Amino acid sequence: MATAKKAAPKKAAKKAARKPNAAFMAPLAPNEKLAAVIGDKAAPRTEIVKKIWDYIKKNNLQDKKNKRMINADAKLKPLFGKDQVSMFDLAKIVNDNISK
């Protein structure tokens, strides 16, 4: 009769620390329209989007019925170019309003 060996408990694999992509974290300067909402300091794209969302949430600008839509106020209207945009359009709007 063969005896069954118990498997040794596996050690948790160490995850390699991910290096942030330097190009992804490069500071980008906002134009005048974007600076009116987030300030005029250069920031990485991720921080710019975060600041826009902070402004949207602070001022309750998400549409009540459809949370994916963002209603423009006086500061966002020049940036958006219309009264309401989809949250999926934010990346394009940010891209159009920064200088690399």
Query: What is the helix tally?
Result: 4
Termini separation comes to 72 Å
| Percent helix | 25-40%
Residue share in β-strands: 5-15%
Tell me the name of the CATH class: Mainly Alpha
- Reading side by side through the largest sheet, how are the strands ordered? 1-4
CATH architecture: Orthogonal Bundle
What is the assembly state of the chains in this entry? single chain
Overall SS class? alpha+beta
- CATH names the topology as MDM2
Major sheet: 2 strands, antiparallel
CATH homologous superfamily assignment: SWIB/MDM2 domain
What is the string of SSEs from the N terminus onward?
EHHEHEHE
Low-confidence stretches: none
What is the average of the pLDDT values? 87
Could you tell me the number of beta strands?
4
The total tally of domains equals 1
Rg from Cα: 22 Å
